[in-house]
Design brief:
This protein is of the alpha+beta class and 125 residues long. Helices cover 23% and strands 26% of the residues. The chain is built from two helices and six strands. It has a six-stranded mixed sheet with strand order 1-2-3-6-4-5, with helices on one face. Strand 4, helix 2 and strand 5 form a beta-alpha-beta unit. The mean pLDDT is 97. GO terms for molecular function: deaminase activity.
Length: 125
């Protein structure tokens, strides 16, 4: 059994997927890219884009009834691994020990040619 999560405080899904799904006591977010809730792409480099991604993730997690403190796994997709230090610094602002498990990969291309996309898995409260 699964329940879809949707909030107007994050960009709407632009395809056949949910912003997040709750199943088995966990919430699985879809990858968030740096779009504002009204669908505008955030400019200004990877720092600004990463901050918008975390704003979106916070909104989706809140709609599911959880938050960053309950994240157990994060996956970070980068267009350029040279951006890792900047994204890592923004990431560190949102998590405390014990940190979630994490994978970070460079990909050939991201939707809308953004610089960063992040998805998380979190426990429910």
């Amino acid at each position: 059994m699964k329940d879809a999560i949707q909030t107007p405080h994050a960009p709407a899904a632009i395809g056949p997927y949910s912003q997040a799904v709750i199943a088995g006591g966990l919430v699985y977010t879809s990858g968030q890219i740096p779009l504002t809730p009204d669908g505008m792409l955030v400019e200004g480099g990877v720092d600004a884009q990463a901050r918008q991604v975390f704003t979106n993730l916070r909104a989706v997690l809140a709609a599911a009834g959880t938050d960053f403190a309950r994240v157990v796994k994060a996956t970070v997709f980068l267009a350029d691994m040279n951006d890792f230090p900047v994204v890592n610094a923004v990431y560190a602002e949102h998590f405390a020990e014990p940190y979630p498990a994490r994978s970070t990969v460079q990909v050939a291309r991201l939707p809308r040619d953004v610089l960063v996309e992040i998805e998380v898995i979190a426990e429910l409260h």
